[in-house]
Amino acid sequence: MNSNSDVLVVGSGPAGLFAALVAAQRGKTVRIVTQGAGSLAICGSNIDVLGYAQGQRIDEAPWAAIAQLAPEHPYSLVGEHSIRSALHCISALCAKAGSPLSHADEEKNTLVPSIVGTLKPSWLCPASAQGNSLLAARRVLVAGIEGFKDCHPALVARQLKRYPELKQASFQTVNLIMPPQPRKRTLSPLDVARFVDSPEGLAWLCRSLRPYASTADVLVLPPVCGIEHSGSVMATLGKEVHCPVVEMLSIPPAVGGLRLRAILCRELAALGVNIVENATIVRAETAGKQCLALISKGTGGERRYTAKHIIIATGGILGGGLNMSPTAAQESIFGIELPLPEVIEDRSQEAVFGDHYFTRMGVQVNADLCPVGADGAVLFNNVHFVGRALGGYDYATEKSGLGVAFATGWAAAHKV
Ligand SMILES: Cc1cc2nc3c(=O)[nH]c(=O)nc-3n(C[C@H](O)[C@H](O)[C@H](O)COP(=O)(O)OP(=O)(O)OC[C@H]3O[C@@H](n4cnc5c(N)ncnc54)[C@H](O)[C@@H]3O)c2cc1C
Questions:
Q1: Does 111 map to a domain?
Q2: Which residue of 48, 148, 164, 414 has the fewest C-beta atoms within 10 A of its own C-beta?
Q3: What own/partner pairs with CB < 8 Å and gap ≥ 24 does 67-71 have?
């Protein structure tokens, strides 16, 4: 069976969903073919643009630091205009969906509290995670939920107090008690957020937080303020609790990423973009510098997809876009060879957030995001790579994951 469209996007992580959306907004017929849900199912919804450079936290001037990045960094290839346009586009989308994003200042990073009590620099975050009211507070309440795994209010309070910004603040902690729920495992942020999406869950949260509004300047919670209705949940809390609420960034399963994914998927459906799930692209048909078709394998067998333009958003080693063995590293659809240090010890470092080769490894591209070989020559003119499949950056140490995914997705959609 053959399926044709103007643009074929492979992968449904943030880079693929966003590239498809922007291309569809520009009037193209777009199809997404994807193996799995992508990392929005496990990541937060803070849009990190550049949090660290040369190991230093960037609070004041991320844009100046971006201008200093190496020429092969995806940001250097797409340029500041694409990055800012992509971020404004995603902001407008979230605002339209009733879940606004916010930043302290267009030119600065904002500090977002995490569930382990760290402050993470991010450029754009859900209004509910904005750390400004926490940093300005003198009396902070950190609330967990009884039976909830991975959130320990006393630990969060102790860790936050180490920051100079919060040295003067006093902390109180509490574990809120949820009404009994039928379940056979410990609570996760997803369980509570789904409950809070319901009218009785929202009423419970308002009732539980209200007593603390007079004794605290800010209420810090795990990310439990709804998934589908997070915008209206935050608005109701504002009206009913009368104290700023700040959600912490949590470890997976990630409520924030799922909120963002729901917004992108709703918009894609409204634009008529077809998403083919559980389908893995297993090979490409090429002629010279053109990709003629991609072949998928899924529950219904093999299927052939043709398109004028192809956007590859298959992620890194985690997403399935890159493969690495002791002897070779390759991009997974076209088999593009990636250079690999011969000495195995040079491929990683002892320090967890050290300069690991494998975290920067990826496809090299030109300014059109078309893949290039070791000699710099273009391999395919109608194929554009976006997101974590790209080489030349390390999102984990830089804190630039969703920033690169959206900026390159936006840029590729404007090349097709
Ligand atoms: C735990 C965690 C938390 C994070 N938190 C944040 C955060 O708070 N803020 C931030 O900015 N960044 C964060 N990041 C980083 C961010 O999630 C990634 O940089 C970003 O998601 C990469 O997106 P992507 O679309 O390029 O790839 P992915 O999200 O990995 O998507 C790849 C997609 O391609 C599909 N695919 C792969 N191969 C094929 C194939 N052959 N055929 C069909 N489909 C295929 C996959 O199924 C998947 O849908 C986090 C990352 C992790 C792991």
A1: no
A2: 164
A3: 69/393, 70/392
Q: Is the CB of 395 under 6 A from ligand 1?
A: yes
Q: What CA–CA distance (Å, rounded) separates 135 from 153?
A: 17
112 Cβ partners below 8 Å, 6+ apart?
46, 119, 120, 121, 122, 125, 129, 130, 131, 249
- Whether residue 316 has pLDDT greater than 80: yes
User: Does 115 fall in a domain?
Assistant: no
Q: How far is the CA of 131 from the centre of ligand 1 (A)?
A: 25
Same domain, 290 and 195: no
> Is any atom of ligand 1 closer than 6 Å to the C-beta of 47?
yes
The pLDDT of residue 244: 93
In a domain, 255, yes or no: no
From the list 257, 266, 244, the residue with the least C-alpha distance to 138 is 244
Same domain, 367 and 283: yes
Q: Both 280 and 319 in a single domain?
A: yes
Residues 191 and 89 in one domain: no
Statement: residue 55 has pLDDT above 90 = no
Which structural domain range is residue 159 located in?
138-243
* Ligand 1 contact via 314 beta carbon (within 6 Å): yes
Same domain, 57 and 172: no
> pLDDT per residue over 371-399, tens digit each?
999 999 999 999 999 999 999 999 988 99
The number of distinct structural domains making up the chain is 2
Tell whether ligand 1 has an atom less than 6 A from the beta carbon of residue 44: yes
Tell me: do 351 and 311 sit in the same domain.
yes
Contact 357, 349 (CB under 8 A): no
Same domain, yes or no: 405 and 289: yes
Instruction: Report the separation in Å between the CA atom of 312 and the middle of ligand 1, taken as the mean of its atom positions.
Output: 12
Q: Considering the entire predicted model, what is its pTM? A: 0.93
Q: What is the DSSP letter of 384?
A: E
Query: Ligand 1 centroid vs 357 CA: distance in angstroms?
Result: 18
Q: Mutate which of 9, 17, 18, 39 to test ligand 1's pocket (most atoms within 8 Å of Cβ)?
A: 39
Whether the per-residue pLDDT at 1 is higher than 80: the answer is no
Query: What whole-number distance in Å separates Cα of residue 19 and Cα of residue 412?
Result: 7
Q: Whose CA is nearest to atom 21 of ligand 1?
A: 39
